[in-house]
Amino acid sequence: MRLVQLCGTIEVSELCYGTLTLGPLQKGLTPKEGGRLLRLAFELGVNFFDTAELYGTYAHLAAGLAEHINEVVIATKSYAPDAAGMEQSLAGALRSLNRDYIDIFLLHEQESLHTLRGHAPALEFLLRQREAGTVRAVGISTHHVAGVRAALQYPEIEVVHPLVNKAGIGIVDGSREDMAAAVHDAAKQNKGVYAMKALGGGSLYADALAAISYVRALPGVTAVALGMGSPADVYANCALFSQGAFPADYRPEQSRRRLHLEPWCNGCGVCTEHCPQGALSLAAGKAVIAAEKCVLCGYCVARCPDFNLKVI
């Protein structure tokens, strides 16, 4: 699998392994189980792995990559808005991954210039760590066109991780064309762009080849993060990115995963405050899911105080 330059001296495989799928917010694989998939991907040429403090998959990476942990590029994310919180996030990532540095550290889910300004202390901390060599590159992840455009105001932001797909599913504040234009503009500023949710949280499985091909072809996109939950997925996606086609007998997961709400939900409303898609609301004292808006990010699962939400 060919390597491409994401930013600076960081070279990555065009296929990035999105580890959200493996952890407690989605498939709930153990570190040993998930680690086997990560190791398989590494052996097939993947050197780029995306995670986040929220995902709970540091242990999966440590278990699966073990002695190869310093041979790969790891991108992680934190919601911390201030220096103290970000310092804790960085220390936790380094400790859990058994590394002396993180390749790419992102401010998680930036929505606009306003939210990016609100995270200025955390950003400044990461920039100091970049100077110290503890972080190689700094960036943001976002589901918003305005988030990408906000990053254009910050020359020091080197990497952008946007949500984009051919159906525009999950883009909070615009169309797929709006996001594509913003991504192109980011790349023209020499920011490295690696895309998320090419399959729209699973909605585009039936047209997986076209969906992935659309994102790969977008001007400015260097790499694509895909969640892979089985050996078949790993083999198939590695074949697509290295040989140009899925294996003839591969059929992407057809069973539509969904967000499940337990009937004993008490309607506390915490989940509605942490859904970037606006897919959750309250009615008659219970949470209500708008399935057409949900991209199965699982962020609400992590926030529910009573564990009443899960991706199944």
What would you say this structure looks like, in words?
The protein has 312 residues and is an alpha/beta fold. The protein has 2 domains: 3-243, NADP-dependent oxidoreductase domain (TIM Barrel, Alpha-Beta Barrel); 259-311, Alpha-Beta Plaits. It has 11 helices and 14 strands. The protein has helices spanning 31-43, 58-65, 83-97, 113-118, 120-132, 145-151, 176-188, 208-217, 231-243, 270-273, 299-303; strands at 3-7, 10-13, 15-18, 48-50, 73-78, 102-107, 135-142, 159-162, 192-195, 223-227, 259-261, 280-283, 286-289, 309-311. An 8-stranded parallel β-barrel has the order 3-4-5-6-7-8-9-10, surrounded by 6 helices. Strands 1-2 form a two-stranded antiparallel ribbon. Strands 11-14 form a two-stranded antiparallel ribbon. Strand 3 (15-18), helix 1 and strand 4 form a beta-alpha-beta unit. Helix 1 (31-43) crosses helix 2 (58-65), helix 3 crosses helix 5 and helix 6 (145-151) packs parallel to helix 7. The protein starts with a strand and ends with a strand.
Task: Please give a handful of descriptors for the protein shown.
single chain; 312 residues; alpha/beta; TIM Barrel; Alpha-Beta Plaits; 2 domains; 8-stranded parallel beta barrel; two-stranded antiparallel sheet; 14 strands; globular
Please give the structural blueprint.
Layout: E1 3-7, E2 10-13, E3 15-18, H1 31-43, E4 48-50, H2 58-65, E5 73-78, H3 83-97, E6 102-107, H4 113-118, H5 120-132, E7 135-142, H6 145-151, E8 159-162, H7 176-188, E9 192-195, H8 208-217, E10 223-227, H9 231-243, E11 259-261, H10 270-273, E12 280-283, E13 286-289, H11 299-303, E14 309-311
Parallel strand pairs: 3-4, 3-10, 4-5, 5-6, 6-7, 7-8, 8-9, 9-10
Antiparallel strand pairs: 1-2, 11-14, 12-13
Helix pairs in contact: 1-2, 3-5, 6-7
